[in-house]
């Protein structure tokens, strides 16, 4: 078994009877000797992103004969292409063949695989590929529960999508829809998404859209928010056609721009929207509208501001002059607004002089705030599910000739309405022919627009139908009537000597909720000669306060006797009524002591004047004898009482 060519010599020896004879012969053995030598294997690149490929190359040095290569993945050849989805080591076997003789040796090479380094709950991540087609599955990474792999199909149900930059993600070739697509949530981070014309993107997730990149929607493309739970939109976005069809509502955390059309099918949109010059709105109602500020850039065409609040539609239709901008916000409050929210809420003395038709009152339940650089001829529409948002439900007819639009311009000004301009149905008021001046004419004050009536009988949703004070010389009878009440806990009746500083003289329980007129009255004995000013503070169950107009009554100075204190009933159970008579303007302190002299109750009265009454709730005290002490800087009066 020689390893090289070798000549062998054989010597033959014959022996006969002791005689020896020899001879020799040579033979040569030729040896074929294949050699692989040094084998190499390289990967280019050695690290790839999932879905990409690497080129593997094998070679050998010092070899003789014919060379061949076999790879561990079943492929052959000196160079092959691989696309592993996980880190993979490949083995190549090199074979040299000479004259039928074979020699082999092996070599290993590894390919490292990276996946997108994106945190978040994403099902599909845009990876790009040979095209920008959103609807091509291989352009996406799909999460399989452990890793991101190249998608083979796109899902039929909504999923969460991510389009952006990062490890193993593109820097160009961003997705563009080629057919209708439906997603759960979509996040754009450093990338961009395009929706060409005549394509639709349906969004159903509660996060909806988060945009920190570029979102480009053709004016004839459509985006539909159609989730079954409340949805949000983060980032400034511009849409072509936009449809809201989510009964749970959509919240816009940043301003949204509409270039073509916004359709309100279902649900409230909370946030601010801007409509470009050619944009319009459709189908707004009390169940679907913008609860925020709507801004319109004018092109001279009629536009409906789809504003609303508190499940009430308050829209304005007007033509906005080209180059001008108008912003509208509508507010509605089923319990009425406070003075801090609206400049006046029920004050017939604030009507502008020179109005052909003056108001008896204006509505405290709904108003528009209008900012406009152009005078507007407008129509307002207020619509709710039931007429009780605007009218008393017991009313069967409405005097449309009494209803007008009222605008606050330093006073309540009549800006349109009445016969021929007002339409009233079961749940809707429409007032047309309203003239709204440009804000530049009243630049120092907001433009407040609400409903007003020239007659007290028109059943706009005011809280008070009347509020009067009458003096008989020794006391004042204060009377008021409510048309409707919602969540009304109580009235605090307040009195003042100067119409500036008021003190409470009585609390009167409210009716809570009522749709029928209710009369109230209280007799105040703590009057003084001259003007006595009164106002009502209406307090809701949640503590919300609304202050009425001030009424004034002039009384003759009454005869004043000695100060006196009454405490009754005596004995009492849980409540004890304490009456202070003839105290004038002396500040007083009411205190209750037990038999050991321990103070168990105290209350200061700022100015009880001639008569003051309060009810003490002493239900937490055990049955025993007690002393009621009323003191001023001038005197002290004690009354003994017994709780049984």
| Averaged pLDDT | 85
Strand content: over 45%
* Number of DSSP helical runs: 0
The number of strands is 54
Give the low-pLDDT segments: 343-349, 392-396
Rg result: 46 Å
User: What level of helicity do the residues show?
Assistant: under 10%
N→C terminal distance: 131 Å
User: What is the subunit organization of this protein?
Assistant: single chain
Structural class: mainly beta
**Major β-sheet profile:** 14 strands, mixed
Quick take:
The strands form ten sheets. Strands 14, 16, 18, 20, 22, 24, 25, 27, 31, 32, 33, 35, 36 and 39 form a 14-stranded mixed beta sheet that branches. Strands 12-11-10-13-15-17-19-21-23-26 form a ten-stranded mixed beta sheet, with no helix packed on it. Strands 28, 29, 30, 34, 37 and 38 form a six-stranded antiparallel beta sheet that branches. It contains no helices and 54 strands. The chain is mainly β and 644 residues long.
Structure overview:
The chain is mostly beta strands and 644 residues long. It contains no helices and 54 strands. The strands form 10 sheets. Strands 14, 16, 18, 20, 22, 24, 25, 27, 31, 32, 33, 35, 36 and 39 form a 14-stranded mixed sheet that branches. Strands 12-11-10-13-15-17-19-21-23-26 form a 10-stranded mixed sheet, with no helix packed on it. Strands 28, 29, 30, 34, 37 and 38 form a 6-stranded antiparallel sheet that branches. Strand 29 and strand 30 form a beta hairpin. The radius of gyration is 46 Å and the shape is elongated.
